[in-house]
Amino acid sequence: MPAKSVKQKRFLSIALAIKKGKLSKKYSPEAAKAARSMSEKALLHYNKTKEKGLPLRKKRKK
Description:
- By secondary structure, this protein is mainly α.
- Helices cover 52% and strands 0% of the residues.
- It has a domain at 6-47.
């Protein structure tokens, strides 16, 4: 489950930090919700993705 974009990787890195207790849930309520719904193992898989070569944002399909 690699991250599809740099933004997704960074968002899920924040969720992982919230899950581990390094950041407050008030920092990002959306990331706190993602942290509750995902396992720590899944968050780690996304966090291991290298940012080099990833697009900043994934393009939407119309």
